[in-house]
Amino acid sequence: MPTPHDLGSIGWPPGQPFPDLEAGQQLVRITGQHRNGFDVHDGLASRRAHSPRGMVADSHGVSTRPAVGDWTIIDPAHTPAALVRLLPRRNLLKRGAAGERYQQQILATNLDLAVVVMGLDGDFNPRRLQRYLALIAGTGIEPVIVLSKADRCENTGALRAQIESAHPDIPVLAINCKDADAIAPITARLGPGRTGVLLGSSGAGKSTLTNTLMGTVRQKTSAVREHDSRGRHTTTSRSLLKLPSGGCLIDSPGMRELKLTGEEVVEDDGFAAELEKLAADCRFRDCKHQAEPGCAIQAALESGALDRDRYDHFRKLESERERAAQQRDALLRRAEERQLTRALNHRLIDKHGRR
Questions:
Q1: What does the entry list under GO cellular component (predicted)?
Q2: pTM of the model as a whole
Q3: Is 53 in the same domain as 117?
Q4: 148 labelled binding-site residue
Q5: 208 marked among binding-site residues
Q6: pLDDT, tens only, 72-91
């Protein structure tokens, strides 16, 4: 029978009480997700499991299905084991799924640390980094930025300073991901009972970083294309791995598209507050900050006191977030209307019978 120590090696927080289990049930964590089931781990061994139909449904555009990182209770008497119920999540990391239809995709759950990896080559993209940080903001997950391939970059210091200036409250590491000493700040954050996730585009160096954290070649790596520094998807599915440091790590495939869900707080380390302060000096209280006379924000943009690229990207993210929020709210309203209609029809049938 797994002990608290065993469960701690797959991320069970120290001191957290265990749920009540019925005879024969077992507490496990989902470590892998497949089309026809899940991999689950009890701290000692891994096994396959499946879930009832109701646990894999999408409810009004918001995925309620089990995900990597979830703690769940299983009935191991079945083959494969059957998921009985999910434990409440401490947090979850999600994005808007690709496509026109509004849908949320859960990336991972029950996290302590999110390591965003960005290469100091053609992968370097501060605006994409801001999207990752927008997904993390407000979740309670600690972010760390890793600028990989520092050994191949001639202006590492300047690029690191640029990211540190834009995100002064987030640790920034510019490292060679193969250097075990360089990744010590990450290892220190992934002790027993803690779970981290790696985020970044394909070819950024996530698999290399995973191998160094593991102390062995666990994930395949491949060379990036020379013309755009993009890599092949050597990691094709999310998986939770036990680390020698005592914690665990969720490695995830590179993401080409990062859509917002509408629930994010778009904050660029004080930039929103800076805009709000400037807007207080606008001539009109309802200024849209576009072509209105006396707009303090437009004046700051024209004088160069406000960075136009940063402002334009901030507005773009805000607009995307608002559009996603409208889609989500419309979907929830339609679902609520359908539920009310069904409830009314049931009452009429109970009262008058079917016609």
A1: cytoplasm
A2: 0.81
A3: no
A4: yes
A5: yes
A6: 999 988 888 999 999 999 99
